[in-house]
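WARN no homologs supplied; continuing
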Amino acid sequence: MKLVKLLANLGYGSRKQVAWMLREGRVTDAAGDVLYADDQVGHADVRVDGEPLDPPLGMTLLLHKPPGYTCSTKDTGRLVYDLLPPRFRLRSPVLSSVGRLDRETSGLLLFTDDGQLLHRIISPKAALPKVYEATLAEPLRGNEAVLFASGAMLLEADNTPLKPAVLDVLSPTQARLTITEGRYHQVRRMFAAVGNHVVALHRSRVGGLALDDLPEGEWRALDAADIERLMAAHG
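OK structure emitted
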């Protein structure tokens, strides 16, 4: 791929803007030698303003989403893309969030520009477990775990019952819920269906991936081993 197209696809600017960067000598190799539009250089050997290139196409990221951010590129207010380098919004193919967390839910959120991987992750066939920690307004009644695990629970406005989910009680008003679906506001609606209200919600794991010690608001690029762990954990 020509250098101009590579940099444009990575979001460094339009082809015209990238061509101007090249003419200004802002694009070099690892040794600091200026690169030109027709140079053939490996991704890892290119520098822009002395910095290594962003991850190549086929990139997948893990973000520790704080509450108060919306999973959108266009809504008003704080957006999850504000937590990523601005260039990431301009990448081609588009860097998309893998599903969504609602505005006030924190935790693990994935992004990818790999369409095939995105569909593998969200496919119902994958049944990847998603683990949430919920803080509730009212004490648990004690029958929630049996109901959630029954495979017969039907949420309002839905036509099909939920797949069995696993509830672990952490305290009278705190619980860990593992689900293998991704219905609209599913966790909040499940607790609402048993007469409770979720005060705070945090997603700590998707498939075999956890946040570990990644600070809130920070992100990291996933490697092949991470993707393998992600997809190896089936519900």
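The radius of gyration is 21 Å.
OK
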